[in-house]
Amino acid sequence: MSPWRLLSDGFLHFEKMKTVQPSIPVVLITGASSGIGRATARQLHERGCRVYGAARRVERMADLQEAGIGVLPLDVTRSESACACVEAVVEREGRIDVLINNAGYGLYGAVEDVSLDDARRQLEVNLIGPALMTQLVLPYMRRQGRGRIVNVSSMAGKVYTAYGAWYHASKFGLEGWSDSLRLELKPFGIDVVLVEPGLIRTPWADTALDHLEQSARKGVYHASAQRVAGVMRRLYASRLGTTPDRLARTMVRAALTKHPRDRYLTGFLARPSVLVRRLLPVSWLDAFIRLIERV
Ligand code: NDP
Asked: Looking at residue 237, what is its pLDDT?
């Protein structure tokens, strides 16, 4: 499309790149081999986007590939892997319009029981990973004069529970990091959007709770950790949780809407938890959380 336009004053005007909207957005989404990422990749594809899904378990994305979605290997903790992933998209499409930093997992366990190596890995995947991917796409987005970074945080970036310390650290961190980034990128026409899901029925809970139970085995936190894991497992196994397909609708909105909000808090328990956190003094909130963990 030519950047020159004939306007009502009869002169040809050169329109800057940023006013030229690409008709088909190019989207790169991390963590597309499962759960929220997989559902979002599918829905974006159905909406006509050129979608690239990335994750370590490429074999789990064979169905996405068959559906016409680009599939790329990616470990967000390895710079070479992240670099190759972004380069592959740019080589094929010439641009990246939306990066969705969705890859992540929950490292649950008592602070005393979780090794610092495991804790570092949690921050590497959930916080440094999005930073790495963002650094890699920004030169292209700045050159385009437009773009969008969608970071998948959590209600766990706003509220807390026992035994989730490192996960909360990663998501609370992602919240502040994204707010700073939004200010930095505004002048370049690049949006930064947070999605803060509540309880979503994906394999996320198995990873988090298996680790909680294993790390607490035979230690002083054993009984309490078992109880908390039991409550969470029951919640995730129930029909109460939001489905990934449902959550993906919000993800699509966050990625494509013309004027995005700074954050989308959505999914089972997300809004009530954040409301309770805002209303209650911390001592009451602590007592309330302890009560729930005994249910
Ligand atoms: P899943 O376990 O279903 O999916 C996690 C995805 O992250 C997988 O595709 C996995 O791919 C990918 N991933 C994990 N580690 C890496 C890595 N090192 N490099 C690249 N990809 C990686 O969980 P969800 O879909 O539920 O989680 C998606 C996001 O949503 C996460 O950030 C999570 O914290 C957040 N979230 C989830 C909630 C829930 O209740 N489910 C609630 C709030 C937020 P692979 O292993 O193949 O690399």
From this structure: 95
Query: How many Cβ atoms sit within 10 Å of the Cβ of residue 30?
Result: 27
Name 284's Cβ contacts closer than 8 Å, sequence gap at least 6.
none
* Residue range 163-176, pLDDT digits in tens: 999 999 999 999 99
In a domain, residue 15? The reply is: no
- Report which protein residue has its CA nearest ligand 1's atom 19: 75
Does 21 have pLDDT greater than 80?
Answer: no
Tally the domains of the chain. Answer: 1
Give the pLDDT of residue 22.
61
Q: Does 2 map to a domain?
A: no
Query: From ligand 1's centre to the CA of 103, what distance in Å?
Result: 4
Domain that holds residue 36: 23-292
Of 71-75, 128-132, 173-177, 286-290, the poorest mean pLDDT is in 286-290
H-type alpha helices, 47-189: 62-66, 79-93, 116-123, 129-144, 165-185
Residue 18 lies in a domain: no
Residue 4 included in any domain: no
Check if 71 has its Cβ closer than 6 Å to any atom of ligand 1: no
Decide whether any atom of ligand 1 lies within 6 Å of the 55 Cβ: yes
C-alpha span between 156 and 38 (Å, rounded) = 21
- Cβ 102 under 6 angstroms from ligand 1: yes
Report which protein residue has its CA nearest ligand 1's atom 4. Answer: 34
CATH code, domain carrying 95: 3.40.50.720
Distance 2 CA to ligand 1 centre (A): 40
